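Z., the sequence and structure:
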Amino acid sequence: MFAELKTLLVRQLKLDESLIRPESSLEDAGVDSLALVELGLLVEQHLGIAFSEEELARTASLTVGQFSDLLAARRQGLQEVPS
């Protein structure tokens, strides 16, 4: 799932690939509040995984790796977003 997420971040959001590491925070990878909303839409379009606005806001504090793990869990039908 990390590779798919990284592809979205680099190709669709035009973020610097060198900043996208599992241990990087989403913010450090270049995902600001506007990019987070756009990422939510891209994840839904490309991966079929939807987040409510509230859930998406709570993901802002995650690392890229944690967000990737969350996407994998969502794909498997688990719905919990860390608070």
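Residues 33-47 form the longest helix (15 residues). The mean pLDDT is 92.

Let me know what you think.
H.
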